[in-house]
Amino acid sequence: MAEQEASAGGMKKELTLFNFFTIGFGAIIGTGWVLLVGDWMVLGGGPVPAMIAFAIGAVLLVPIGMVFGELTAAIPISGGIIEYVERTFGRKLGFITGWMLLLGNAPLCPWEAIAISKLLTTRFAEFPVLAWLRSVKLYTILGADVYLWPTVIALGFAVLVIFLNLKGAGAAAKLSSFLTKALLAGMILAMVISFMTGSPSNAMPVFSQVNDAAGGNATTATSLLGGVIAVLVMTPFFYAGFDTIPQQAEEASDNIDWKKFGLIPAIALLAAGVFYLICIYSFGTIIDWHEFVRSSVPALAVLERVNLFFYIAMLIIATLGPLGPMNSFFGASTRLMLALGRKGMLPESFAEIDPNSGVPKKAVIVMGALTLIGPFLGNNMLIPLTSVASLGFVFACTMAGLACWKLRKTEPDLPRPYTVNGGMFGIGAAILAGALIIALMVVPMSPAALKPIEWAITIAWIAIGFVILGVTGKKQSA
Q1: Are the beta carbons of 389 and 103 closer than 8 angstroms?
Q2: Cα-based distances in Å from 252 to 2, 4, 257, 258
Q3: Among 429, 438, 26, 37, CA closest to 231
Q4: Pairing with 369, which of 222, 316, 362, 413 sits 20 to 30 Å away (CA)?
Q5: Nearby residues of 268 by Cβ (< 8 Å), 6 or more positions away
Q6: Are 367 and 172 in contact (CB under 8 A)?
Q7: Distances in Å between the alpha carbon of 6 and those of 109, 223, 254, 356?
Q8: Alpha carbon distance 211, 217 (integer Å)
Q9: Distance between CA atoms of 18 and 264, rounded to whole angstroms?
């Protein structure tokens, strides 16, 4: 099967339903659940508001996952979102949607490389035997120290991801499968520790404010509802990733069941939601959550206090965690570049497929260079890109919903092996969910509104996109 090629473009058809699930699940669940679970509790005013918010976030995004399922099962091509939107709303909107989704996906590859370097610098280097990790300081950038050996090791992880993606989608999918099992092991470990040493009473009261959390953080919400909303507006960033599934649809196995495939994005999203809920509950009940949030990276700090073996195990899992999103977003980003190249929206060389591996080689090289830059940028360099990436992701998801709605009317006879549950109502729910999240990010008074630097990055990215579209358009017409 791995040797079979797609009829168009020479891409190998080797990905199974389980491969697609692990690609999506691995993209969603990185290492944020270990590093940021304490911040979620502080922001919401306890584990319970945080859990409610993540549950609502998953439910809101499920219709969007189903929209991607319907569109991809009907039009299974790499970077298909560009095709869906161009087919319904024209070339410019098709390009902008793909370009914004690229903004939502590509920066997460260097970001995950930075996360690995940060864990090596701040956690592993605390062990006396590993103190050499901080022995050679290279420089300080935006207040963050960059050290030689954590940078070298993070580069090694990034090279592994690049190498596997150069070999083909099948090799990269195997990494996603392994990492999914590692993440599940981390979740089970947290559950076991909570069961052995914790109590549900540690998560009480349902809502309360804290003012002495690590880093000077405090709860600004004044009610349970306010706490839920405060966490809810940032959940899309931690659920981003299920959109990586349809970007590699062209590499699906020839005997794949497209009706079942249509459910995979929603299933990956719900599985991630359950994962988050279990982790928040587990860490929120090991000790009193008010005490839990006083430590820096409390999920690791509390395990270090409870049992050194458990701490080391979770630290290793947390360090492997960023490889999942890096691998999935790497594959999705290169397929978006491939689609843009095929449409003449990027140079035609991006549309060329390597005859041996079946991958878009130039796109892999460009993404590889971007990913390898990450560890040199320091912990604080890419912070503004998190909100920008969220906006790009949600904008693309909303456009997918609108394209799905319009295609139902303009192409009613298009074969659809899978259709959105709830029909037009389900599609409408996807559009509404996307529009609400976008509004929370662009309305100035919103708690999740973009900051000036984030607006500057977004506007600059769109401007660069239009310049590229103009240049490639002129070449096509010449």
Answers
A1: yes
A2: 10, 11, 10, 9
A3: 37
A4: 316
A5: 21, 24, 25, 28, 65, 241, 242, 245
A6: no
A7: 27, 55, 9, 13
A8: 7
A9: 9
Letter for the amino acid at 24?
A: G
Q: Identify the CA nearest to 186 among candidates 324, 55, 16.
A: 324
DSSP, collapsed to helix, strand or coil, labels residue 107 as coil
Q: Coil, strand, or helix at residue 194?
A: helix
Q: 405 Cβ partners below 8 Å, 6+ apart?
A: 424, 427, 428, 431
- Tell which wins on pLDDT, 363 or 233: 363
Instruction: Indicate if the alpha-carbon torsion angle 360, 363, 369, 375 is positive or negative.
Output: negative
What digits encode the pLDDT tens for the residues 239-297?
Answer: 888 888 888 888 888 899 999 999 999 999 999 999 999 999 999 999 999 999 998 88
Residue 101, classed as helix, strand or coil, is helix
Q: Residue 140: phi, psi to the nearest 5?
A: -120, 130
**pLDDT at residue 38 above 80?**
yes
Asked whether the predicted pLDDT for residue 447 surpasses 70, the reply is: no
d(CA 54, CA 274): 9
- Give the span between the Cα atoms of 364 and 375, in whole angstroms: 18
**Between the CA of residue 36 and those of 32, 233, 318, what are the distances in Å?**
5, 15, 12
pLDDT digits (tens, 9 = 90+) for 139-160: 988 778 899 999 999 999 999 9
What would the pLDDT profile of 191-233 be if each residue is shown by its tens digit? 888 888 889 999 999 999 999 888 788 898 899 998 998 888 7
Residue type, 450: L
Q: Which two tokens stand for residue 50?
A: 């945080």
Res. 474 pLDDT band, cuts 50 70 90: low
Structure-token pair, residue 199: 């109590």
User: Span 22-33, mean pLDDT?
Assistant: 85
Locus of tokens 């035609």: 348
Using alpha carbons, list the distances in angstroms from residue 66 to 48, 70, 249, 407: 28, 6, 15, 15
Higher-pLDDT residue of 440, 125: 125
Rounded CA-CA distance 159/165 in Å is 10
Residue 14 tokens, joined: 């080797």
The two three-digit tokens of residue 92, written as one number: 């410019």
Nearest to 70 by CA among 420, 397, 425: 420
Tokens of 469: 């579209």
Chain-wide mean pLDDT for the chain?
88
Beta bridge partners of residue 15, listed in sequence order: 252
Q: Provide, rounded to the nearest whole percent, the portion of the chain with pLDDT above 90.
A: 48
